[in-house]
């Protein structure tokens, strides 16, 4: 099996060296860039399977790099994990809405880094087959049948509103993935039905209540948005 390629774009040399070392140790092929401009060049030449992108970069910042990576045909589909510092929640939200797939808050352990990298690569492979979207999603006692707008908890049907169902189906379509309120609004609203950020919070409260024991599967990511809990083990 060929090694998966990871590009790190990070200006802090200590972090760059450490992440590089850890990823190489774990069998990845790694390239480094210490500025955004260099990162864009390497992304084109190296063709990474995944990009780790620091948000706070000198010159062109990480958000702008993320935007450009999403516009280039060669890197449009490449997953991006943002590396962020504490207090950058607004940037995390903007980054996710610009097309980043996940984020990792500094400082992070080697273990967390590897888990995140593997999860994103695994999801990327899984997303290649869109057929799965209409299969029921099962998580513990919860079953979601996207094709039939039907949800059961421990075999008992749950009455959800159209909006609640859409939000749940969206989150559960990518377990472990954080969706911002803006992304939820975009995905849920019809042309004649305005959903606001605040309304999303209200919908989530109602949704959790109706899901009862499965309510905690819908997790709040403080300052960023919501996600559906990832299955333990290899799920
Ligand atoms: Ca930095």
Any overview of this molecule?
The longest helix is centred in the middle third of the chain and has 18 residues, at 110-127. Helix 1 (13-25) links the parallel strand 1 (5-9) and strand 2. The protein is 41% helix and 20% strand. The strands form 3 sheets. It has a 5-stranded parallel β-sheet, sandwiched between helices. It is elongated and about 55 Å long. The protein folds into 2 domains: 5-130, Response regulator (Rossmann fold, 3-Layer(aba) Sandwich), CATH 3.40.50; 134-228, Orthogonal Bundle (Arc Repressor Mutant, subunit A), CATH 1.10.10. By secondary structure, the protein is an alpha/beta fold. The model has no long low-confidence stretch (mean pLDDT 88). The site of calcium ion has 5 residues, from loops.
Overview features:
Rossmann fold; alpha/beta; elongated; four-stranded antiparallel β-sheet; 20% strand
């Amino acid at each position: 099996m060929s090694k998966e390629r990871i590009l790190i774009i990070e200006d802090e040399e200590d972090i760059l060296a450490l992440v590089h070392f850890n990823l190489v140790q774990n069998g990845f092929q790694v390239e480094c860039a210490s500025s955004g401009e260099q990162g864009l060049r390497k992304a084109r030449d190296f063709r990474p399977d995944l990009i780790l992108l620091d948000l706070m970069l000198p010159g062109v910042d990480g958000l702008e790099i993320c935007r450009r990576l999403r516009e280039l045909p060669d890197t449009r589909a490449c997953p991006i994990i943002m590396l962020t510092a504490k207090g950058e929640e607004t940037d995390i939200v903007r980054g996710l809405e610009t097309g980043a797939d996940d984020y990792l808050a500094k400082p992070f352990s080697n273990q967390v880094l590897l888990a995140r990298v593997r999860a994103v690569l695994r999801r990327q492979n899984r997303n290649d087959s869109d057929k799965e979207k209409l299969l029921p999603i099962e998580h513990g006692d919860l079953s979601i049948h996207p094709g039939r707008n039907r949800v059961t908890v421990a075999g008992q049907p749950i009455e959800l509103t159209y909006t609640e169902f859409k939000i749940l189906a969206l989150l559960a379509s990518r377990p472990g993935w954080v969706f911002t309120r803006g992304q939820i609004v975009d995905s849920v609203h019809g042309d004649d039905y305005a959903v606001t950020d605040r309304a999303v919070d209200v919908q989530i409260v109602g949704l959790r209540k109706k899901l009862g024991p499965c309510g905690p599967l819908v997790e709040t990511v403080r300052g960023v948005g919501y996600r559906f809990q990832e299955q333990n083990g290899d799920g």
